[in-house]
Amino acid sequence: MANSKYAYVRDFELPDPLLPGVFMVLRIDGHSFHRFSEKHNFAKPNDVRALQLMDHAAQDLMEEYPDIVLAFGESDEFSFLLRKSTSLYNRRQSKIVSTLTSLFTSSYVFHWSLYFPDTPLVYPPSFDGRIVLYPRTKEVKDYFAWRQADTHINNLYNTTFWALVQQGGQTTTEAHSTLRGTFAKDKHEILFSRFGINYNQLDARFRKGSVLVREDLEEEKEGEVTKEAMTDEGHDEQPNIKLLNHGVIIARSLKLDWKKENTRKGKARPPKTKVVVLHCDVIKDEFWEERNGLLVES
Ligand code: DGT
Ligand code: MG
Ligand code: MG
Ligand code: MG
Ligand code: MG
């Protein structure tokens, strides 16, 4: 194979390395999800199942790629921040974009029936992917603030729009014209005075999107027994068994799952962190101050 007379065509494949020492953000977005959401009867304005499925695919990606330190998702898109010094696939752009976008897509399809048990896929969905480089932490923070502000603007509009249609009996054309030229405060007012909806009390998932970060798994201490172990053995009422907090119980069960799945794959150590889904603010500095390690590598 190596030195056939045809091998020169290989020289036409050019390298596409990404600049070293800068942050990479990979954004994946559903292709024509306007159509896909209609064909699969997504609830309007927000379909919790669809959003949770997106979170699940993003979680799979973060579990497979430890160099992803943060992810943010809304609607049919997810953004992934890779650590500044990542050497993933030697920073080859097409390798990273295509492999990660492909895993996200296959995970979305793989878990579809878990979230849509009564809605078979009528055609295979696809996602596009792109990488944007950001040299400084300011731009990284502003990038995520931009996506979360977008979530808020779209959700406020869509929530008011569909309230006018579904509860207010307007046609979609009428609802569009009702909202033309309105400011955020006007939409809050329409929601509250006409439909009794307090926007700020709606599910944070819809208002803030999904924020995925890694949290440390607490190490289990010698001699402590988890709730699962207690229940399995029917020891619930024994006074000498110490109830651990919820986090440790989850951590323990994740480790057991990990062991079951990975012992045969030959992976030696269980993970020290787990990926959690939050619906918190990423625009204010607090988020970044509490998680300094996302941007500053030790
Ligand atoms: P693209 O990305 O240029 O290929 O085209 P689209 O159609 O994917 O456009 P995009 O990404 O700007 O907008 C996302 C579409 O997905 C938008 O039409 C609404 C739909 N969508 C996303 N999440 C939901 C949901 O939870 N419920 C419903 N009903 N639709 C959703
Ligand atoms: Mg688009
Ligand atoms: Mg899309
Ligand atoms: Mg989109
Ligand atoms: Mg190959």
From TrEMBL:
Catalytic reactions on record: a 5'-end ribonucleotide-tRNA(His) + GTP + ATP + H2O = a 5'-end phospho-guanosine-ribonucleotide-tRNA(His) + AMP + 2 diphosphate + H(+)
Annotated Thg1 C-terminal domain residues: 138-284
Coiled-coil annotated spans: none
UniProt superkingdom: Eukaryota
Binding site residues for Mg(2+) 1: 29-30, 76
Keyword annotations of the record: GTP-binding, Magnesium, Metal-binding, Nucleotide-binding, Nucleotidyltransferase, Transferase, tRNA processing
Protein name: tRNA(His) guanylyltransferase
Species this protein is from: Laccaria amethystina LaAM-08-1
